[in-house]
């Protein structure tokens, strides 16, 4: 009898500890609800009849492997979209333009404000238009040279800014890759600790399992992973290569493939991975995708301006007679020809007299020319329209990323709430359980005291009788 009561006290004490631990971890995002379940230790047949041998407590986590995998998957998508959003925001800021997008049910139109490269482009051709109206005015000539310098500086500034954005994206991807490798090591170490602690008692390393799941979710935010648990409680972590084949990253207590980045490709060991989500993928894809496309478009614009303005300013291709340096055909290299100054600038053909404005007019008209790649040009449309489209594409890509982040965050929240309904701690429920366990403990203590008193009296009486 006393032994059965003693086991009941132990079991109820454990249950109280479980409920207290649940309440203490109510705000711990990596913690999953622990449940104490009483189990009978059986009974024995005595001369007095059948007697219970007491009870024990089995402590288990309320965790769903399916919901955990869903949480990791949605975290990976959310993180990937957020990373792209961040890079695109940097790219838009690098342009120095304010883009206003107006969406309807079927189309999206964009307008670029009068700032940044767009303003410099307009001011440059407006200066030539003013020079055409006053071809002998020295002040207008100085303005043309000044606006040309501003335009080339603005091209180079934008190119440098976008290059910095790409560098930042690559650096963030490398940093996230380092973090992913640290998390892989952490998971491998936890695998070893869990296997050792659960030897002979499967599923008992509850705190370590919580730590491992927290690490896995941080890892999934960086790179998409799949998780499968072995018979010893050790997780195997895999991802996929470019062909969709499984690649093992962690097997039991060992990291089998370390992550790295080479030429914009994420490698597991020497295997190229085909990432579809996660912050690393988002950073690399935005830097090599939308940002590089924008840089290429601006390079094409710079080359078209150099070619067209030089062709209008120096149609006979006289050596030293170009307006822009002929070799500066990218946004990063465009520059005014070093021989060009306000004193050497010409508005018209010298043979036609000082009042001729044919050259200034020809250059001014470049602004309104419609170019075509089908006709051998570098761009389609006018210079301003082409640039406006390039900038608007970034704005629309950012709008799409913003929508994706908003929608995906809602999906992730839904899945987290689903898991919370299974694994989350309810303070009210735990307080109710705690009170129940405490009352049971008190009752068992009273029974123990009664039995102990009876035994003492019995021993005392037997001693008196024998004396």
Can you tell me about this structure?
The chain is α+β, with helices and mostly antiparallel strands and 467 residues long. It folds into two domains: 1-62 and 425-467, no CATH class; 64-423, no CATH class. 59% of the residues lie in helices and 13% in strands. The longest helix has 60 residues, at 138-197. Residues 102-111 have low confidence and may be disordered.
Poorly predicted ranges: 102-111
Total DSSP E strands: 13
Based on secondary structure, the structural category is: alpha+beta
Percent of residues in beta strands?
Answer: 5-15%
Summed up, the domain count is: 2
The helix count comes to 9
Average pLDDT reading:
87
Share of helical residues? 55-70%
**Biggest sheet: strand arrangement:** 7-8-9-10
Summed up:
This protein is α+β, with helices and mostly antiparallel strands and 467 residues long.
Write the layout of secondary structure elements.
Layout: H1 2-24, E1 34-40, E2 43-46, E3 49-52, E4 55-61, H2 65-95, E5 99-103, E6 108-112, H3 116-133, H4 138-197, H5 206-222, E7 226-229, E8 235-240, E9 246-251, E10 254-255, E11 259-262, E12 265-268, E13 271-272, H6 279-313, H7 358-366, H8 383-423, H9 427-466
Antiparallel strand pairs: 1-4, 2-3, 5-6, 7-8, 8-9, 9-10, 11-12, 12-13
Helix pairs in contact: 1-9, 2-4, 2-5, 2-6, 2-8, 3-4, 3-7, 4-5, 4-6, 6-7, 6-8
């Amino acid at each position: 009898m006393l032994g059965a009561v003693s086991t009941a006290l132990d079991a109820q004490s454990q249950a109280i500890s479980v409920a207290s631990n649940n309440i203490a971890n109510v705000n711990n995002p990596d913690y999953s609800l622990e449940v104490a379940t009483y189990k009978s230790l059986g009974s024995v047949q005595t001369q007095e009849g059948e007697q219970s041998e007491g009870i024990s407590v089995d402590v288990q986590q309320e965790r769903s492997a399916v919901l955990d995998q869903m949480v990791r998957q949605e975290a990976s998508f959310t993180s990937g979209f957020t990373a792209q959003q961040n890079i695109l925001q940097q790219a838009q800021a690098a342009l120095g333009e304010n883009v206003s997008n107006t969406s309807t049910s079927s189309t999206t139109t964009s307008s670029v404000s009068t700032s940044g490269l767009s303003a410099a482009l307009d001011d440059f051709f407006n200066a030539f238009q003013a020079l055409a109206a006053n071809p002998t005015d020295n002040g207008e000539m100085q303005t043309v040279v000044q606006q040309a310098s501003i335009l080339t500086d603005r091209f180079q500034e934008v190119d440098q800014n976008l290059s910095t954005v790409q560098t930042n994206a690559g650096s963030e991807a490398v940093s996230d890759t380092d973090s992913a490798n640290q998390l892989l090591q952490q998971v491998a170490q936890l695998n070893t600790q869990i296997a050792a602690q659960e030897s002979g008692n499967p599923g008992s390393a509850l705190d370590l399992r919580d730590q491992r799941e927290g690490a896995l979710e941080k890892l999934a935010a960086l790179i998409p992973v799949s998780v499968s648990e072995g018979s010893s409680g050790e997780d195997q972590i895999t991802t996929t290569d470019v062909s969709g084949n499984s690649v093992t990253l962690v097997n039991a207590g060992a990291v089998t493939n370390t992550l790295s980045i080479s030429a914009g490709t994420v490698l597991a060991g020497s295997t190229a991975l085909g990432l579809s989500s996660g912050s690393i993928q988002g950073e690399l894809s935005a830097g090599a995708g939308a940002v590089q496309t924008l840089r290429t478009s601006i390079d094409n614009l710079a080359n078209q301006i150099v070619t067209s303005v030089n062709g209008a300013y120096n149609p006979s291709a006289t050596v030293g007679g170009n307006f822009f340096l002929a070799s500066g055909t990218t946004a990063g290299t465009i520059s005014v020809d070093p021989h060009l100054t306000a004193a050497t600038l010409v508005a018209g053909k010298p043979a036609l007299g000082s009042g001729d404005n044919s050259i200034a007019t020809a250059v001014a008209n470049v602004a309104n020319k419609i170019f075509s790649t089908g006709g051998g040009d570098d761009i389609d449309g006018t210079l301003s329209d082409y640039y406006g489209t390039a900038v608007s594409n970034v704005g629309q890509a950012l709008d799409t990323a913003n929508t994706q982040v908003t929608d995906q965050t809602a999906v992730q929240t839904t899945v987290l709430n689903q898991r919370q309904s299974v694994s989350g701690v309810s303070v009210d429920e735990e307080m109710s359980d705690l009170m129940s366990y405490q009352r049971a403990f008190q009752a068992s203590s009273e029974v123990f005291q009664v039995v102990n008193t009876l035994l003492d009296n019995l021993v005392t009486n037997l001693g008196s009788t024998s004396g």
